[in-house]
């Protein structure tokens, strides 16, 4: 399934929908174990480095590193819904240097 676990921490989470979310390369994978099906969040332009799930169990934040091929591969954080794969916000595009390697939601 392409799980990146050798150089990242806190990179696999359970969603409210009983699916598992993790990242591999530019993709964030949402795996439904019951149906053995995957959905993919495909909006990142460089390798995803970190992931966090909001306490609502549906909202996800994923951070990407600096790419090496194109100027559009800048580090940023994308906040999105796991049920619809809709991007809610893009944070820090062009403001981070290096990679986004950790993030978390605050408890309400």
Automatic annotation (TrEMBL):
Q: Which UniProt keywords apply?
A: Repeat, WD repeat
Q: Which SUPFAM superfamilies match?
A: WD40 repeat-like
**Repeat among the record's keywords?**
yes
Name of the featured protein: HELP domain-containing protein
| Cellular component annotations (GO), alphabetically ordered | mitotic spindle
This protein's record includes keyword Repeat: yes
GO MF terms on file? microtubule binding
- One family name in Pfam for this protein: HELP
Source organism of the structure: Macrostomum lignano
Domain EML-like first beta-propeller: start-end pairs? 37-107
One BP term from GO: microtubule cytoskeleton organization
């Amino acid at each position: 399934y392409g799980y990146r676990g050798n150089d990242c921490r806190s990179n696999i989470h359970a969603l409210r929908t009983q699916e598992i979310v993790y990242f591999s390369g530019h993709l964030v994978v949402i795996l439904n174990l019951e149906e053995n099906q995957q959905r993919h969040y495909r909006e990142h332009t460089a390798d995803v480095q970190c992931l966090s799930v909001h306490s609502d169990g549906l909202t996800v934040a994923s951070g990407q590193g600096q790419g090496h091929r194109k100027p559009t591969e800048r580090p940023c954080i994308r906040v999105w819904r796991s049920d619809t794969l809709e991007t809610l916000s893009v944070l820090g595009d062009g403001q981070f240097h290096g990679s986004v390697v950790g993030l978390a939601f605050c408890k309400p």
